[in-house]
Write the C-alpha cells for this entry.
Amino acid sequence: MDTREYWMKVREAEAKLDPATYIVMLAIPSRGITRETTTVTDPFSAAQLMVNGTHRLATKAEIDSYHKAEDELAARNLDAEKKRNLKHQIIVNNTLDESLLTKLTSKKKGE
C-alpha cells in the first residue's frame, strides 16, 4: 500500500468513528504483547492504529469492562488519598515573594 492509499484508508475509517473511540490493542506475542488491552482515543489515532493492523474496535462488553476497571481504580485511588489525609495547598499566583514563600515552607516543616 502506498502513502496515498494508506491515508485514504485512515480518513475513511476516521469518518465512521465516534469522537471517543474505544479500541483494543491486539496481542502480538512476537512483540512481547501477550494480552489485549482496551483504551479510548480520538477517531484519527484510532483509524491509524486500525489501518496499521495493531488495534480493532472494542465490543460493548469490552467497553463495559474498561469502564468498570476505571471506576474501581478511581475508587482505590480516592481511598488511598483519604487514608494518607493529604493536605492540598493551592497557590494561584506564581509570583510569590521570598518572605511569603519562606513562611509557607517553614510553617509546613513545623507542623
